[in-house]
Design a protein that fits this description.
Chain A is an alpha/beta fold and 428 residues long. Chain A contains 15 helices and 16 strands. The chains are: A alpha/beta (428), B alpha/beta (308).
Chain lengths: 428, 308
Amino acid sequence: MKFINPAAEELAVLRDDPLLSEQEFDDMPEVAAAVEKAAGMRAGRVYWRSDHDYLYGLELADLGKGRPSMATVYGFRDRYEPRPPEHEIEADLIDFLLWLAEIAEGIEGENIKKLIGLAKKYGRCNTGWPEGSVLRTPEDRFLNLPGFDYEPHYMEIEGLRMAYVEKGAGDPILMLHGEPTWGYLYRKMIPPLAEIGRVIVPDQIGFGRSDKPVEINAYSYKSFARWMRKFILALDLSRITLVCQDWGGLIGLRVLSQIPERFGRLVAMSTGIPYGKGAGSNEGFLRWRHYAQRQNYMDVPEVMQSYSDRCALSEGEQAAYRAPFPSAEYQAGAFTWPRLVPIRINHPGNYDNYAAVKVLKTLDIPVFLPWGDRDPLKEGEGALRNIFKHCAPPQPIADTGHYIQESSGEEVADHIRKWIMKTPLAKR
Amino acid sequence: MFELRVTPDWLLPHFPWEQHFLKVNGQHMAYIDEGDPNARPVLLLHGNPTWGFLYRFFVDPLTNAGYRVIVPDFIGAGYSDHPRIDSRLTLAHHIADLVSLIDQLRLRGFVIVGQDWGGPQGIGAALQRIERLDAIVLMNTWLYTTFNDKPLTPPWWWMTPQLPLAGSYFMIRNKWWSHGGVSRISKRGMTDTEARGYDHVFDETNSEQAVLCWPHTVPKRENDRGWGDFRNIEERLHELSAIPALLLWAPEDGNFSIQFAHRLKELLPHAEGPLTFDRAAHFLQDDRGPDLADAIVEFLDRKAGASL
């Protein structure tokens, strides 16, 4: 386990939960000694980040024996938000116990291993999604999609099925959709870009053909970024040209900051990585947030048409956008996204984005920003220009708003294609 | 192992409603959920050392007026889990617990009614789900760290549990708050059965610990536990300026004098009231329950309505 020093600003927006408490070490001095050695102290707190990107703390207390006598494991969560699904915490705690068993290497360690084995065997530690906690949109909702007859591929990420389509060969062009759409949004851009690269269009968890956890607290900014990062690592993509819009960018840019060595170019449209009082606090966004949070069922075509000009959708296209969401139960992800956008200093995502931007500012990645000239998030373009050093000249897309892939897909694809052809990948 | 707590038979005449349970932040939260499930939900939030029983006079008037009534017990109180660890019982946790309930029940257009700790918990959670909030009613509570530009100085007896050694020892030993804490200051004079209604949820040994950890988290000065959480609420109260608000107050309350209401009114100038209720102490819902419920129904009918 790699211990870290989290920033005070990060700790301030989190709430601590004692998870494994008061483990007494007095009758296992070898474990106490090993823990002391690993933590580099016998009293105080050390922190680490789990496979789920959550922050944990191990608190050691020395009750006068000259070695750690007591241990408590704390989880640190979004301050006022519910905990993530219990199975993620349980999986992280099992990881901790395995680490403990590993460093102890004595009889006690074996006991801990046995305990974990037993716990798993008897199902006390539920590390998967419980029955009924994940919905999968019936396949027949996706029959006869106009202009989108790509064979879906599937991959499992943390027990969830993630869907994607791909076409073409060469360096990957990864296209990420946002709220409240799915990969279908990119249908007009796939054929032209597949001529110059391997186009990969995943559906975010909670959208499209991907699985949809029902619980709202299964979705966080962290979890979306984690799922996408694991998707990229599972396909072992590198030399990626990232094409992203709306939440596709909020997620994609976060992931770019986490594994920058895998990315070679960035195309960002109507998106950003808001922090501080950032893009999220503007009137238009707050109005959207209010609208979205009050809906019982969000009608996707209605949202698209009210936020973008020239988004006239045929009956079949409207059905395709509604396809992933047979009812409100399927929309937990779509419902959650608007309020995960950091709009306040003490919004937990705010610190993470601030940390991500610090990394993004150091990158030499070339950036292209096609932007709808009537996009309600117009100021987002300037914000990105302040972050990235190597931005191509502005490329306004005429007479359109937020969903330029729908209103002007062919035109946008053509601009991107030309830009990719003349722009070498970032040096690694 | 969690045992489902069931309302004992002797209490059913006073509290006949079915207890429901949900898991919030790893703990079982008990709540009652009465009235039309499609009507506007009204969340009735108690404080310390009480539980949903405090709102028993509110359930019928509100459901008869067409509202859906949800009365949760705080984690650490009532029929909810009683964790033994103080750091599981901070305001941040109580807020996150209520947010989880709001999410899981998918509440829309909800109303927060809060007294004592139910005020900061309810408003803290409402600020997290502000788009779904339609009205607030506050009674004998506080939401701020400053009072007339001076740091908040609570009455001295808030501090009794913090007196070195003697205070806590005395209170723990005699269950000074968890047993008899409500009936002792009742203005109306409650029956023994009603007093037991409050006390029996704290029959286990060491019950005073949960009850006493609340006053420890009343922040008096910067860096106190909970200070940042109260500051966060105080600084965001202006976001509630478009939400109909009502203040109901029992000025005879020894903890929250009418000055506390006036300070709330400064921070929420659009709020109606404070409407004052005499013959009532800190637990005004018990002393003047039906009258308060009528005032709330009148306010909600006028400002929000029972249908969504």
